[in-house]
Structures are given as C-alpha cells and as structure tokens.
Design goal:
- It is built from 3 helices and 6 strands, in the order ααββαββββ.
- It is of the alpha+beta class.
- Keywords: Hydrolase.
Length: 151
C-alpha cells in the first residue's frame, strides 16, 4: 500500500521534469495530471492522429500512456538518483479506446529495492461514466549510475 503522506516537493518536481523530457508523450499530447505516493495519472486528449483504421485510439498509444503511468508510479517509490525502466509489461485491451480523452491511472502494487510491480488502468472518457478500456501490469527495475538518471 502506498504511503498516504504527501510526496516531497523535490520528488514531484523530479517526476514532472522527467515526464517533460519524454518527447513521445509530447508527440502524443499526453499530460501528467496527478502525482501521489505510488500513484500517477496521465491524461491524453483524443485526436485523429492517434487513431487506427476503425477510428479508435491505436493500441500503441494506449499502451504508451499505460506504461508511463505504471513506470512513474514506480518512480514515486524510489529515492533521488534512482530511476526506473520497464523490464516487461502485459496489457489487456478490454474495449475500444474511444471518447474525448483517455485517462491512465498508474499504481504500485509492490515496491522493492530492485523490482517494483505496478499496474495501470486506462479509461475512455466521453459524456458518461468513464469506461475501462485497458489494463496493464508491469515489472519496473531500479537503475542507478546511468546516463539520464540524476537527482
């Protein structure tokens, strides 16, 4: 269970700065909405450049925001100077990703020093209640001493 105390301001800033460096998230149009201990929310406005041949958001875009939500949730549990990389993930596409926007909610299931298990749910949002359209589980590994990983 994630700690209910607020994240330290430097951890929140570190995650926001890291997210801002992800050119692919910028290309998709994704935005980091909320950062809490063990939890992250990423918003993706739906637009035509994200769709596949049937007009739904492409599974690659859905998987990308889900992976980032799970990975950043894992990063909230790491000390300064430690980053994370996804070692593996599995995604279930439960319903077509269609709506005005998608919301990926990442959550840590079990944090460890080396490996962290996280998950993400992706919801399609239109006028009615959010519809669960994808679920991802990920194993994230802690990394240190590598280029791009800093305090």
């Amino acid at each position: 269970m994630p700690d209910a105390s607020p994240l330290q301001e430097d951890t929140t800033r570190r995650i926001a700065d890291s997210f801002a460096k992800q050119a692919f998230m910028t290309t998709l149009g994704a935005r980091l909405l909320h950062v809490r201990p063990g939890e992250i929310e990423i918003d993706l406005p739906v637009s035509a450049h994200l769709t596949q041949q049937h007009g739904f958001v492409h599974a690659g875009a859905v998987a990308s925001i889900a992976d980032s939500a799970a990975g950043y949730a894992a990063l909230t549990t790491m000390p300064a100077g430690v980053g994370v990389l996804t070692a593996e993930f599995k995604i279930n596409l439960l319903a077509p990703a269609a709506g005005e926007r998608l919301l990926a909610k990442g959550k840590v299931i079990k944090a460890g020093r080396t490996l962290t298990l996280a998950m993400a749910e992706v919801f399609a949002i239109s006028g009615g209640p959010p519809k669960l359209c994808a679920m991802l589980t990920a194993t994230c590994m802690a990394i240190t001493g590598r280029e791009g990983v800093s305090d």
